[in-house]
Amino acid sequence: MAAPVRFLGLDLGSRTTKIVEWSAGAVAGFEIFDTTPDSIERVRARLARRDYALAAATGYGRFLMNAHLGCRIVTEITACALGARSIRPGAGMVIDIGGQDSKVIRLGNGSGAFADFEMNDRCAAGTGRFLEVMAGRLGYGLEEFGRAAERASESVVLNSMCTVFAESEVISLLAEGRDRASIARGLHASIVDRIYPLAARFETTGDIMMAGGVALNPCLVDLLAQKLGRPVVVPENPQIVTALGAALAVKAGLPV
Amino acid sequence: MARDHDDLLRELGLDLDLHHRIFDTVDRSFAETVLSQRDRPSRMAYFDGVVREAHGGRVREIVGRRAAGDKFIGTFCIYVPEEIILALGAIPVALCGGTSLSIPYAEKMLPRDICPLVKSTLGLALSNTCPFGPVEDLAVGETTCDAKKKTWDLLARGGDFHVLEVPQKKGRRDRDLWLEEVVSFKDRLEELTGRRLDPERLAESVRLMNRKRRALARLNGFRAETNPPISGLDALVVMQGALIDDPARFTARLEDLNDELADRVRRGAGAASGRGRRIMVSGCPSVMGNWKLHALIEAAGAAVVCDETCTGARYYENLVEETDGGLDAQLAAVAGRYLKIECSCFSPNAERLESIVRLAREFRVDGVIQYVLQYCHTYNIEAVAVADALREAGIPSLKIVTDYAEADTGQLRLRIDAFLESLGR
Asked: Which B residues, 357 through 416, put their C-beta within 8 Å of a C-beta on chain A?
């Protein structure tokens, strides 16, 4: 019996690269690794195995993949929407906080992959990068940072949204002797304040799903759910939703 | 850029090194975005020349006219009635800046959170790189936004300045105010030129400007074709030229281009922007030097087929009524035409929303991209009402907020590509 046909979705993000294999109606495997100057070589090596029918690239590196490796391309917005729909058909909205930007996508009932989308402004405020910088400043690893924020007894109000200014504010707060965990919680709350208006612009009745690496931070998910007054669903591997969507997009037929 | 006019620019006292550093980059961007397009109409060559000669031949021409006694008027808005300037033998040129490279010179004085158009314009003046500054007999500002108003106050310290008060509503009192403003502008120009406004000359310039606007409307009409014979970028280049070139010569060359476009339509020769998704750009102007948004949209495989901007329909729609009722009636007709311009400075502004939906249908667009120059509050906020009006009409839209810098092109390309995917390209 012939092996089932395999489709590859490649998501070349600003912080991590994700590869998802789709075969026989399910995710057959995935890889996640840091995006570095060499990560394209790792993708090239993966593609060199030639064990797939078609591959599609998405993310900031998509044009590079198209030019060098002949992959078809799709935007992160369409890919994330397709991935979210396949994981949870009842989803009405996806909030995807990535390393470099955050997106809110309204899925809608139309024939298209999505109905509407909003993105953050061009700076790093409200993105994974913001959390990363702030965790470092507080001397936490990323996971520890989320756990500390979850346990904190209070939340310090931060006034700066800008990554650079918020960092100075955190330094001043530490100098005043404020509790590290409370500052961590305040930083989480400030991200949520940044995402909330983007999400609140869309009225939706379906489930709200969170995708992207930041969805692995339970404190942030809880705070976001509280702010939106609705449960927020996190899939098993939130980082690969967009790569999965790219595989589904190429399976459904993407122009070359 | 070419160095053929260095003698002139030096004579005008410009900072030649800085001028070339800024405008070599503008030239390169023009070559990369506009000149590199395939299948351009051959008569675009004249309009490419208008861009290339903006700081050369055109300045030389103005210097010659001034030596013969004519006055040169710098403007910053399509609300300034060109008919009156022309009727007094004066030369109007729009001096809005479209390059990011002059912005740091404005930021020495202005706060950073001001729109790039105002900063670029002031930056060219302050860095001594705008060749029109030294030959300007009068600059004319207007009150279409707060940033401009307060910048005029700063610019006025350097020379003669006249501010036209553009009303904020379109009622009877506002029409009276605007007519008064147009009349006092005429008085100021009469004083400057030492000439009396002659009704015959005004009738002539009204006919010329009407002919120019009709020719621009015809050019834009070709973009409504299923296979447009001209790209959105090229149409923009023509519109940008309309704001600086001699109107009679410009109109004659535009009519030639229109004949070529009519022929291309007959032969089915489309522009490189082709039969992709049809996009209307709505909102802020893209003045000379700024080809960023149109280039991004057309590089993504769509065609810009209509511009609801100051470098688009707002400039060419509506003509001045040609009346033989005497000078007062003529001035009223001029004022009346200009008050129909749908700037976002008006409140309420239902007419603009209706025009956007009308244009979207006339040009059979698949979607509208609302173009907001960063910190342009009126277009940015009005974008909410525009998006609602379009949604009600069943037309998808996307809002882009950006400045002149290239730093965000990756993000913008993502938004534009995603928008096109949602239209099912």
From this structure: 401, 407-408, 410-411, 414-415
